[in-house]
Design a protein that fits this description.
About 70% of the residues lie in helices and about 0% in strands. It has about 100 residues and is mostly helical.
């Protein structure tokens, strides 16, 4: 996310024209959907907290070695898929922000 925002900040968008339109989405629909999302996340967090018992973590939990072993042993393919997805998202952000290359 930070990489995509950084690329968007570096683009020169001063010559782009303002796209007109109604303010319906910004005025009513945006805050309504944001409130619904916050309510959904809060309800999910309450359900998760009710079913979870906190236990003491195992020795070595949270260390760099444990993270590296988990990342490259169990989550190697999802890690690579997410990295490819981030590259595609960055290219898409540049293409959407800059109409002509």
């Amino acid at each position: 996310m930070v990489l995509i925002l950084f690329v968007l900040m570096l683009l020169n968008l001063s010559d782009e024209r303002h796209l007109g339109g109604s303010g319906l989405v910004q005025t009513w629909l945006g805050p309504l959907l944001a409130a619904a999302f916050v309510a959904f996340v809060a309800a999910a967090a309450m359900l998760w907290a009710a079913d979870t018992r906190f236990e003491r973590p195992a020795a070595g939990f949270g260390t760099v070695r444990a993270l590296g072993l988990d990342l490259f042993n169990h989550f190697f393919y999802p890690f690579e898929a997410i990295s490819l997805l981030l590259v595609v998202a960055m290219i898409g952000a540049v293409l959407l922000a800059k109409r002509r290359l």
